[in-house]
Design a protein that fits this description.
Largest sheet: 4 strands, antiparallel
Strand content: 25-35%
Structural class: mainly beta
Low-confidence stretches: none
Radius of gyration: 10 Å
Oligomer: single chain
Order of helices and strands: EEEE
Helix content: under 10%
Number of strands: 4
Strand order of the largest sheet: 1-4-2-3
Number of helices: 0
Mean pLDDT: 97
Amino acid sequence: MKQPIGTKARTGENCPESGVWKVVGVPSTTAPIAKGNRMPPYDGKAVTWELISYA
């Protein structure tokens, strides 16, 4: 079962769903991340990522 759009994951956690993820906050970025990969840091910091679309 797919995780819903809007699902959040933190840097260092395993990605719960393949898709396009966006950093919550400013500055922000988007990145395609595959399910099972580790959620990356952004700008050298641990961040919260939010799923915005499916791969």
